[in-house]
Structure formats: C-alpha cells, structure tokens
C-alpha cells in the first residue's frame, strides 16, 4: 500500500473500531476500504478479521464495568462463539473464492437490513418477556452467529444483540458488553486459523489494528453520545458501495 492508502485504512479502522463497540457493523466500513485499495475479496476479508481483533478487545476492555457479574454468562456462551468462529473460518477457506464473491453481497445485504431494522427491533424487544440467561436457544443462536462471523462478520454484533434481546433479560449496555467479548473471540479464533491456512496482507492487518484499538476506546467512551441515525446512514452507504464493488469486479 502507498502511504495515503495506509492512512486511509488506519482511519477506516478507527471508525470501524468505534462502530463495532457501539453497534457492531464495522466490517461494512473496513472491508470495502480494503477492496478499494486493491486487495482481492478473500484476502481482504481474512486481513480484516485479523486487523479488527485488537479493536474488539479494546472495546470489550472499555466496557469492563458493564461486564461485572457476567462471568457465568461468558463461560456459558464463549464456547459457542469460539466453535462457531472455527467452523465459519474453515468454510471461508474450503469453499471456492467464487462462492465467497457470490455469497458476500447477499450477506452484506442481510447485514444492512439488520442495521436499518435495529431501532424497530429494539422497540419490539422491549415489549417481550425474556429469560435471565437465554437457555439452550441462545447458545445455539450464538454458535450460528459465530459461524457467520468466522465466515464474514459484517453486523455479527447486531445479530448477537438481537438474539440476546429476544432470549435474555438484561440491560442493553450490559448485553453490549457481553456482545463485544463474544464477537472479539470469534474474530480472534478465526484470525489465528487464517494465519496458518490463508493469505494475509500483514500491512493491512497492522494498519487496521492500530486504528481499531483507538476506535474501540473512543467507542466505549463517547459512542453512546453519537447519533445512531447518522452511524446507520454511513454504514448503509458504505455497505452499498461494497456490494457494487464486488459485483463489478
């Protein structure tokens, strides 16, 4: 990458790190940016997953107060996320690259619908009677979300928040803290596998890691004050650009 491309990727990482901490759709920013600077789709996705791991961990640390007392939930749900992340990563590597190029526009479209529908979903969730821990249904749902996250990951956090909101009774900020931990480990286990079995663009990984760590801290500190509508509008715009880029490559 050129110097300006590195700066561009770092800034995308900052934005994505903040979005992932607050909403959970940062891949819809960084993936198109990596495509724009010339990386092939699968390499961009693999490098993106690795590069955003430090940002996810940074966001989880920023929400550490909201994690207080949630140790039993983490122990219960983390194996589902890890197992799902491994399955998703293996699918990414074993399926043909043409399959990825065909599937990802559909996945991005689903992710964009989830991002747009999140306010409506949150209102509906507030009306439901939910369980304290979510039970087997939440474990299975987190496992399936982990497969999605290991394969691609855009709006993985939105999926996890939706599942927890439907199946578990808890304050939204505490659910968000738990979401940050689960999605961080999905990206982490997928990223570790990618190091050994996939082509990784390490310059992109480093640039994203630097930016996403900064963004994770900013998201934890000031993200709740940002206008959600503006964030969603940017995510939808960037996601639409990504779909066009993939379809026209």
TrEMBL record:
It is a multi-pass membrane protein. The chain crosses the membrane at residues 77-95, 102-121, 136-168, 180-198, 230-248. This is Probable membrane transporter protein. The keyword Transmembrane applies. One of its GO terms (cellular component) is plasma membrane. It is found in: Cell membrane. Belongs to the 4-toluene sulfonate uptake permease (TSUP) (TC 2.A.102) family. Coiled coil: none annotated. It comes from the Bacteria. It holds the Pfam family TauE. Keywords: Cell membrane, Membrane, Transmembrane, Transmembrane helix, Transport.
């Amino acid at each position: 990458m050129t110097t300006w491309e590195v700066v561009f990727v770092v800034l995308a990482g900052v934005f994505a790190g903040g979005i992932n901490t607050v909403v959970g759709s940062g891949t819809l920013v960084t993936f198109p940016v990596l495509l724009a600077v010339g990386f092939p789709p699968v390499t961009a996705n693999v490098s993106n997953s690795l590069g955003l791991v430090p940002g996810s961990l940074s966001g989880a640390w920023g929400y550490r107060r909201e994690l207080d007392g949630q140790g039993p939930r983490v122990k219960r749900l983390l194996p589902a996320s890890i197992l799902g992340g491994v399955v998703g990563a293996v699918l990414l590597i074993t399926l043909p690259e043409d399959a990825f190029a065909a599937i990802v526009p559909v996945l991005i479209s689903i992710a964009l619908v989830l991002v747009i529908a999140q306010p409506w979903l949150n209102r509906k969730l507030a009306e439901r009677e939910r369980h304290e821990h979510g039970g087997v249904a939440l474990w299975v749902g987190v496992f399936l979300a982990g497969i999605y996250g290991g394969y691609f990951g855009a709006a993985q956090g939105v999926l996890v928040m939706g599942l927890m909101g439907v199946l578990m009774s808890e304050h939204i900020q505490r659910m968000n803290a738990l979401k940050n931990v689960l999605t961080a480990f999905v990206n982490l286990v997928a990223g570790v596998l990618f190091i050994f079995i996939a082509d990784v663009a390490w310059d992109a990984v480093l640039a994203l890691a630097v930016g996403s760590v900064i963004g994770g801290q900013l998201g934890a500190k000031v993200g709740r004050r940002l206008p959600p509508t503006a964030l969603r509008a940017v995510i939808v715009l960037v996601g639409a650009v990504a779909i066009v880029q993939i379809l026209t490559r």
